[in-house]
Amino acid sequence: MTAELCxxxxxxxxxxxxxxxxxxxxxxxxxxxxxxxxxxxxxxxxEKDHLRGIRAYLSRRKTPPQMTFTQRRELYKGMLDVLAIQxxxxxxxxxxxxxxxxxxxxxxYYDAKIPFSIRYGAGRGIFPMAKCRAVVDAQQTIxxxxxxxxxxxxxxxxPPLRALHIAPDNDPHHAVPKALHLQALEGNKEWExxxxxxxxxxxxxxxxxxxxxxxxxxARWGDSWLFPYLNEQSEKSGFDFNPNxxxxxxxxxxxAMTFESYGSIYHRAAQTHLFGRWHIDPxxxxxxxxxxxxxxxxxxxxxxxxxxxxxxxxxxPGSGFTAMQINEAMHRGIxxxxxxxxTERYKTAxxxxxxxxxxxxxxxxxxxxxxxxxxxxxxxxPSIMMSWNISGETxxxxxxxxxxxxxxxxxxxxxxxxxxxxxxxxxxxxxxxxKRALRKLERDAPQxxxxxxxxxxxxxxxxxxxxxxxxxxxLFGNIQAHEAITAIGREMLVTAMETxxxxxxxxxxxxxxxxxxxxxxxxRPKDFSPLMKEILFRTGLIIELEGVYEWLAFQPAKQNPxxxxxxxxxxxxxxxxxxxxxxxxRRSDTPTWIADAERELMEFLAxxxxxxxxxxxxxxxxxxxxxxxxxxxxxxxxxxxxVCQTRLSRAPDQYKGNSTSAKAxxxxxxxxxxxxxxxxxxxxxxxxxxxxxxxxxxxxxxxESFINKKRYKELLLRTAHQVLAPFGLAExxxxxxxxxxxxQLELWPEDNDWxxxxxxxxxxxxxxxxxxxxxx
Length: 776
Prior knowledge:
Elements: E1 3-15, E2 19-26, E3 31-36, E4 40-45, H1 48-59, E5 66-74, E6 78-87, H2 90-103, E7 108-110, H3 116-124, E8 131-136, E9 142-147, E10 163-168, E11 179-184, E12 189-194, H4 198-212, E13 216-219, H5 222-237, E14 252-254, E15 257-261, E16 264-268, E17 271-273, E18 278-280, H6 295-305, H7 309-314, H8 317-332, H9 349-355, E19 361-362, E20 367-377, H10 380-387, E21 403-404, E22 411-412, H11 419-440, H12 448-467, H13 479-502, E23 506-511, E24 514-518, H14 529-539, E25 543-556, E26 564-573, E27 578-581, H15 592-607, H16 615-633, E28 644-647, H17 660-670, E29 680-685, E30 693-695, H18 709-724, H19 731-744, H20 751-757, H21 765-770
Parallel strand pairs: 10-13, 13-18
Antiparallel strand pairs: 1-2, 1-8, 2-3, 4-6, 4-7, 5-6, 8-9, 10-11, 11-12, 14-17, 15-16, 19-23, 20-24, 20-25, 21-22, 23-24, 25-26, 26-27, 28-29, 29-30
Helix pairs in contact: 3-8, 6-8, 6-12, 8-11, 8-12, 10-11, 10-13, 11-12, 13-14, 15-16, 15-18, 16-18, 16-19
């Protein structure tokens, strides 16, 4: 007897007995654990006699896998003779592969280490949170399953998820939590549990998980603190705490890791994944690398990449793009190698200089500009990869009708769609559709947040698709593809700039995929339409108007005040909104107090009717700076708003200098705190000549009297000057005006007072507390 179920795929994972386990959120509100037999195949290649010997040995095992010689396509080598090995389930395949990897060294493995969600998705056409219809028998075994929607649809419905929010009463890295706060949005229930009785806490948490039965546990510091703490207490108390919905399994733990991405080092805490429900830690998510955490963004990433939502929320978008390439390869019947094998072709120094040049940067003209349009190429590099059919296997191949890369004349085969181009085509189409839908919506439209979350996720997938072409661990990558993309990008940007000049526009700046143009009499969006149409005609790439600025200020470079900074500017659009890039409020290391001051200054400037005559308004802007300084002197600024951040680029004992990062790391290590490369550390500036900073996560919270207010005022004045300089205020004038005003109010000490505070005899708070531990 069979039954039909309709619902959404919450989770898919392998099982040694059932093969595949699929959790379905039914339209009827039920949560169903379904199973399906799932045979798993991987391939090995090598010398034919060696493969025959392996086949003969495996056939004598107690439970031999099914084996047959066949041919499969390798992306770079073409058709290969391989031995296909099929096991009864994915767990058996994983065990056999691990054993073979230790036993046999002279063979190549394919399709051997593929995440199960991708393997199952490629085989069944299923993806996370897909709406499906399944026919099951009395034992809840799937007889057939069909997806009811496409993963590239823009509008799709999601079921109401039961979410349980868990948060400690403070940051565990700053101070030991004393209580847990739980909130269930469905039913508007809240609980508060103290941590002084761990056994009781475990029983209470287990009861809530069993009774409320959440689909997703959103636990702040769940990876780095909560679940490790609960596991430790479970072992000590002997209480069998299991947060899974599937009680036949224990939570799956992934070790902490440190990795580099686009020149920055990141640390990701150990991860705890649940079975049958999700655990997501907003403090340990991939959104830390570029955009704020939203559950909708994680769901969108999971849908288009076919990785689980728990994985999509934590891993970098680059991992998601790799998953998309693997998915596309499996659909095409292309072998997925265990390791990247293609190497860079030999180049002379002159050839390397011509090929590896990166993107084009036309430095901005420093100062304030009126009536400026910002014109962007829509996803320039991904669009080039799609339009020119750039993929690892197409670059360097002539074919019947090749394109040739500018400068290097490298051929690009156009005979069949490349792997990367095929991956990007639906991604770019969906992102363009979402962006156009967003433009049509009012700012307060209820569906805007969901569409913006989708746009953020798709943007980052497209963004990393270019960088991954030259990444050393990209299974299908090729550095020549990376070089071809940048070469074509430079040509397209030069073409756009030449077009602007020919049509009478001044190009104020250009950076990789965008340009800022000005022309007398052009101050409305429609005034720039002819230019955009001509650029589209000449380049073949979609061009978009980011907006028209009423005024725009470009900042000078820090190293040279006579050269414009490549990506540091702010301006006011004609609709009154502000855009800020590269300034203090956009930096993760900026104290909240300074970011708020900068934001208020910009909002004030945006409210000035005529910025060309700022003499009357500059005094009001200076008054804002004075007020912030006065509030700091009066002790009205919470210390937490003065906390700065830095990211550790090495272990504490590997620092040779005495930088801020080194000081903070050494203080934390001396206090017994865990310090990892890539980890963010927080600190405040204090008085003293030796350490001058105090790590925020030390056991003792500093007193307000130890704050180095002079240092913070210097930072504030520097930030305020960056904002006000384009409007005619010199840095010395700003400091003089603020300094003299506050001295009259007896809020700013004389210079010799600061000398006394900075004397050799005074120790910082950190030195007072940790003299026995701090290195000399």
